[in-house]
Amino acid sequence: MKIKKNLGLILLLFNITLSSNTNEINEYNVEIIIFKYLNNQSNELFNSELQIPDEEIIRFYDPDLYINKSALNNFPKTNTFFLNLFKNIKPKYISSKKDNSTKEIINPNPKNWFRETSNLNILNKIKGQIIKNKNLEFIESKSWIQGIDDYESSKFIYDDNKLKNYGFYIKLYKQRFMHVEIKAFLGVNNKDTKIVPVENHIKELEKKVYSNYKNINDYDLNINYPKNIENIMITNDYDSSGFIVNTDLNIYIDEERRIFNEEIYLFDHPDFGIILSLIQN
């Protein structure tokens, strides 16, 4: 009887520990490559269409950029160009809670999450091999940083490029283990998608992240903007979507898979493929 009680206590403690670890939102570097197979000899017919997620979706975070016109045109000769341009930006510390423990805790920074770039680290060599391969056509590469939360709180991130004729929905989440759900396609999407502001999602994740760490050094940027008339907004107004015809999404990948840190995965279709890598920071 005593053995059974001890075993039950051990299992209870294990479940509590597992639950505690599951609630943490860890930060990952995510990289993907999208490529196309050339000289495809498959006679397979694809009649079904991709079922897009019927839930709230986010896109990559692309904040508006402004330049201080007054600072751009008027600054002392002793100041460098960039020093003067960003002289009104000052860190504003919101809170600082210190812990007496000697263990250093590195906080994730949700403010940097979901910002896309084309730069690759882990997959860069594979990208070069794809570009050199005459049987493959390189389409796109992307990387970003994000936190991975539980399934209920995670959202699909959506991106497409009508000129390059592709799009994808990717959801990374954890249920004991990490999982990824990928819905990718070749074509032009004409379906309605429930896009919600990524800023709101980041704020929700911030609350969870900071509630799980004892040492919090959170800060925001206190920017003393000049008058609006003195701001120059940096934009890219070119939009070619009006010249592109929508297509059926019948060339697609729709797969869910358990994944692990520091692993590389291939998701493929007879016509194209996606390579995924993620590494915990």
Residue stretches low in confidence (pLDDT < 50, at least 5 long) are 9-21, 100-104
* Secondary-structure element string: HEEEHHEHEEEEEHEEEEE
Strand arrangement within the widest β-sheet reads 9-2-6-7-8-12
Q: What's the overall geometry? A: globular
Gyration radius over CA: 23 Å
The number of helical segments is 5
| Largest sheet composition | 6 strands, mixed
Mean pLDDT: 78
Strand-pairing-aware structural class: alpha+beta
Portion in beta strands: 35-45%
Could you describe the 3D structure shown?
Helix content is 19%, strand content 37%. It is of the alpha+beta class. It has a domain at 24-64 and 110-213 and 234-280. The strands form four sheets. It has a six-stranded mixed beta sheet with strand order 9-2-6-7-8-12, with no helix packed on it. The chain has a four-stranded antiparallel beta sheet with strand order 5-1-14-13, covered by helices on one side. The longest helix is centred in the first third of the chain and has 21 residues, at 2-22.
